[in-house]
Every structure is written in C-alpha cells, then in structure tokens.
Amino acid sequence: MKKVLALLMAAVMVCSLAACGGDTPAPAASTEPAASTEPAASTEPAASTEPAVTADEPVTLTMWCIATEGDSNRHAYEQAIAEMAEKYPNVTLEWEAIENEAYKQKIAAAMASGEGLPDIFFTWSCAFLGDFVNQGRVYCLDDTLAKYKDELPESMLGNTTYDGKHYGVPTTMNIVALFANMDLLKQAGWDKVPENYDELIQCCDDLVANGIIPFGCAGGETWCVTEYLEPIIEKSIGADALNDIFLGRASYDNADVAKAVDTFQEMIDKGYFDPAGASLPNDDVKANFIAGRTAFYQNGTWNCADFASNPDFLPKVKVTEFPVIDSSKSKLGQLIGGPSDTLAVTASSPNAELAAEYAAELGKLICHYGYLDGCGLPAWIPYGDTSNINPLTQSVAEICANADAYVLFGDTAMSAVDKDPYLEAVAKVYGKELDGAGFIAELKGAIR
Amino acid sequence: MYKKSKNLTVFLFLLPALILFVGILVWPIIASVHHSMYVYPTFSDRGDYVGFKNYVDLFGKQYDFGKAVINALILAALSVFIQLPLALGLALMLGKGIKGERVYLSVYFMPVLISAVVIGMLWEKIYNPIYGLVVKAFEFFQWSGLPPEGLLANKKTALLAVFIPTIWQYVGYHMLLMYAGIKSVSPELREAAMLDGATDGQVNRYVIIPIIKPIIKVSIIFAITGSLKSYDLIKVFAKDAYNCSYKVPSLMLVRYAFHNQGGIASAIAVMMIVLCFGFAILINWMFKERDPYGKK
CATH number of the domain that A61 lies in? Predict the structure, then answer.
C-alpha cells in the first residue's frame, strides 16, 4: 500500500507536466508561466454615431490582434479604429487584443480547426502567415490592394505574397539598426559614426584602447544575438543569398556564411562585446547602453521611441546601418527587417470583400498613427505632418528610403520548426561552442 | 447477496473519486504516451505515426536530452545529500526546543513562501556581473577568479549557480516536515535516553532519526521528484532556454511543446513520469530493505 501511495504521490507531482488530454499534444500547457498565457483581451466595439457616408446595411466585423494595453501600438490601433468608425459608420468592429505568445497559440489553433475565426486578424508575415495560406484559410487581397498601389509600394508586399498572390496588409515595419553613443565615440577620438567596416573595426579598437566596451548584446535572449549576427551575414553574403537561406530556397551549406560567423566571433574574441551581456536580459543591456557602459547597441528600430523619450540621452545617440563587409556581394541599403506586422482576412469570413477593404484602410491608419508615435516605420507612403516625429525615427526613415533590399528577421521568416534549431545554433555561436563551419554543419543537418 | 450489495455501495461511493482519478491523472498519462508516438507538427494535427522514434531522437545530438536528465539527476543528488541533511540538522536543532524556536522556524521557512519567480529575479541580481552582490564581494575582498561574463553565463559555474537558490529555497520546506515529525516524538523517549547517559548526538542518531524515518523517506521522494521536474526558478535564469548549460527536462518540454514539436514534448513528459515513478519505487525498496522489523 505504501508503495502505491508513493507512486501516486510521484504521479500527482508529475501530472501537471504529463498531459492535458484531448486532442492537444501540449503536455505542459499547465506549466507555462501565467504571464505568457494571460489573455489580456479587451473587446471594444468601435461603433460611431457619425452620419452615414454609405447607405450599406449594418455589418459587424470581428478582429483579433496583439495591441494589448501594454503594447506600444495600442494607441495607434485605438486612433485608427476610431477614425474607421467615422469612415465606415455601417461597420461595427468588435476587436480583441491578446498577449503576444498566447495569441500565437490561439490563432494557430483556430486556423487549424477553421472554427471561431475572426474576419480580420493580425499576423506576422512570411512563414507565420504562409502556414495559414497553405491551409486555405486566408482571403486573397489582390483585387483590394490593386486600389492602393499608389499608397502601398509593391516592395512592402513581398513578405505577404505567396505564389504571386497578396494575402496581407502591412502596417508598420522595423529594421535592425546600429545605435551609437557619440559621447563615448568622442572619448575614443571619433566625432562621426564609422562609415565602413574598416572604420568600424578601427573605432572598436580605439574604444577598447580607451577602456570603453564597444558592443552590448543580451546573450540571455537569443533574438538579440541574431540582431548582430544576421546583419553581419547579410553584409558578407548579400541580401538575396541570405533571403534564399531563410526562406528555404538555399542551404546553409555556404562557406561565406561560415566566414561571416567567424567574423562575428573574431569581434567577440577581440573584446568588442561586453562579457557581462552574456547572461543579461535585453532590458539590462539596453539600460547599460543608455548609462554609457557600451558605445554601440544594435537592435530593432522600435527602440527609437525609448531613446528619444530620454532627453538626456537623445542628443548623444545616433543611428546608422551596419557597414558592408564584402562589397562584392553586399551593399549599403541591404537591411535586416522589413514589413512583418500585417493584417489579413480569413477566407471563411461571410463579409470577406468588405473585410478586405476595411483591413486595407485600417492598416493604412495604423501605419500612419504608429509612425507618428515613433513605434515603427511606415510600410505605407507617409502623409500629413510628420515633422514632430523623433529625429532617430526620421534617421531610420532616411536609411529605409535608400534601402536596396530587406531580409526579414530570421526567426520571423522561418517556420516554427526551423526557427528552433536556428536560434539554438545562434546561441551556441555566441557562447563559442560552434564556429562558422560548425554553424553551417549543424543547420544544414537540422533544417534542410 | 448482502456482500454483493455492499460491494456495489462501496463501488458507487468510490466512483466519483475514481472518475476524477482516471480523468485527470491516468487518462492524461495514457494520452501522453499516445501523443509521443506521433509528430504533432501543430496542436490539432497529430501528423505521422513514428512509433518510438521520438524517444530515440531525444537522445540524439539535436535534442541532447541526456544532458538535461544528467543535470536533473545532479540537482536531485544535491537535494538529497546537501539540502536534506541541512534541513534535518536545522529540524533537529529547533526540535530540541531552543530559545526563539518560532522565530527561527519562520525565518527558515520564509523562502518557501516566496514565489520562485521572485527568488529567481532576486538571485539574478545577486549574480549580476556588473552590480551583483557576488561581484561586489569579490571586489571588496579583492578576490580574483570571478568570470567576467558572470556565474550564470560561465559553463563551469552556471550549473552550481542555478542550483544554489533551487536548493536554498526548499530547505525550509523539508525542515518543517521533519520538525513536525520530531515534535511528535514522545519526550519520554528522549528523556529516557538522556537518563541512560546518551549525548544529544546519540539521542538524535538512535532515537529521533529512526522514528522520523518515514518522514525522511517522504522528503527524499519529494526532493528527487521535485528536482526531476524543476522548472520555474530555472526558467527565470534560462530566459529563452537556448543553449543554456543548465537545461532540465521540463524546460525542454515546454520549449518543444510550444515550438510545433508536440511529439517530442510528449516523449519528454513520458520520460519524466518514468523517471519519477522509477525513483519512487527505488526509494521505497531501499527503505523497506533496511526496516529492522521487516514490516511492509
């Protein structure tokens, strides 16, 4: 009996990790930290009492997105939806905002079953939306977007185009940029941001010689390591080659990728990276950059709003793109990032045509207000007065105006299954467990 | 006839509990075993049947589950050989009835009451390589040898650095279990042994510990199964859990369950159940063999 009791106790203790039954294969659903599964839903009907512009009969559309109260895009969504209520008085939008990680699971489960889907949904581009398109769940937006071709450049639609058909309305976009603390650069004898790779290396050497750490990178969050590694690979092998690898059209078995990874590790070996960053979260590394511990910080341009909101720090910081390493294969203007935040329409929507038009107009407005708020760059051609946008975001807009090609963030471009070994290999590169040859060997085996 | 109807009554009274037991415990375990035989590329799509391939793959280079199991076993060993003796020592000390017993009891038990996430964040600050307590202590005493990347990022020190707070947190829990056992030991036994000239150590060794042996056994089972399924505190340190040198089975389980590899995650869950059951049986067997009266 005692044995049975002991076994039961052991079983009870592991049952939370064992399974949740039914059709779900996620045995650990109950162990996920509460914060990440918190359904921060808020349903806000945005009906308007403004006089009707069209005589159409009343329609209710539903939308799922991730613009929760704490999301930087929340304000843009609220303003855009309020304006849409005036434009489309016959349409009542019922929208629900769900926390990022929980949303990924919710939308994937709904798409898989095809039940309970909203009319309009937020999605990330490339593989994320691609999975749903392959399942036949997404409404084709070719006819709708044809009306907006003067406002929405075709170059912004590449990440949501599958088999030549458009399936998404991009809203804001972000790229990876190199932020520099000019006060620290000045201490090392640099009054300008390095303009090419040789200058960058020289600048880093000068910084190290002056006891200043050049880069801060959060090893605890692997996506932050990709913010360094991906631009280095892109500026070594070219945007097209990297895009082909990320999208599965080419193999990782590429000697130039290995060389680029070795370049990254040489920078680590030379002491260009803050060793303390290896165990720190991104917030700490960013705080270190603002506090003047590191001279550079390479990360997404969504940081512009934060840096700009710090009046002491803003005058010190400049933003640029990572310089070209191999000019025979890459050039300035080849960037990591691009339009990823997207609105799409479900094929099962009873009002799909109207929903498509509504999503396009709403996407344009979210882009507009998001840009004004400084939390992203416009995927649509900006309009109205944009002179109050913070100078960092304006600098990034200039970089994007001269863009040659965009390669989407690797972990967004890849499917969930491919993303996992990729991030693990990136983490091993930063931890010096894999060199360039090891990196391509591991990924060519794990991914393709 | 009467016996038959009595049996039926017993069965009917047991039925609600039985349904709950099977529904929330037995069935999920069976379902996990079933899920582990498939790929499960998405939550609702079970994908191809692969038999035991997920189990074989688990120990391959890609998943390296063996390392996670070894880490969990190291944690279990540290729990049994460091955490429990510490808890037993404290319980014996407090159980003897010292001045301020209640205060000490509360102080030692306090970490158990604090959320593991809070403890994780607290120790993360202690280990912070820039301003942490550890680095400042090294600076103050002018010691050298602290890795510049911090204890959590250094491959040699990470495992220990993570396990120290894990073990520290539950010392109070086991202490309280043992303390309750010690307090239930009749004072006459202690006094009789003392009158016979036994020292404190001898009283503990020959009177108290044998009496609280069933509690020690429960503590060992809790410590080992708890170590094998440890998650929350380690998750705080591991952040996104890619390539951390202290990965443990449940960390891997959650990662793969939510990265479209439900089959692998289920296989990990089944392995954890097997390990926990295995250890529970082993501990029972070990304690039974040493029972001087051979009672079951």
Answer: 3.40.190.10
List the beta bridge partners of residue A62.
Answer: A94
Which amino acid makes up residue B3?
A: K
Contacts of residue A288 in chain B, CB cutoff 8 Å? Answer: 130
Question: Which residue ranges make up each domain of chain B?
Answer: 69-239
Asked if A21 lies within 8 A of B128 by C-beta distance, the reply is: no
Cβ burial of A138 (10 Å; 0-12, 13-18, 19+) is buried
What's the pTM? 0.78
Structure tokens at A430: 């930063």
Architecture of the domain spanning B69-239: Orthogonal Bundle (1.10)
ipTM of the complex model = 0.80
B155-213 pLDDT tens trace = 889 889 988 998 899 999 999 999 999 999 998 998 999 999 999 899 999 999 999 99
DSSP for B181-220, written as a single string: HHHTS-HHHHHHHHHTT--HHHHIIIIIHHHTHHHHHHHH
Site from B21, B33, B44 to mutate, A interface, most A CB atoms within 10 angstroms: B44
Euclidean distance between the first and the last CA atom of chain B, given in angstroms as a whole number: 34
Alpha-helical regions (H) of A179-274 = 182-187, 197-209, 222-237, 239-246, 255-269
Among the partner residues B149, B256, B259, nearest to A279 by beta-carbon distance: B149
B163 contacts B74 by C-beta, under 8 angstroms: yes
Rounded Cα distance between B233 and B252, Å, is: 14
**A295 within 8 A of A181, measured Cβ to Cβ:** yes
Task: For residue B49, count CB atoms less than 10 angstroms from its CB and return exposed for 0-12, middle for 13-18, buried for 19 or more.
Answer: exposed
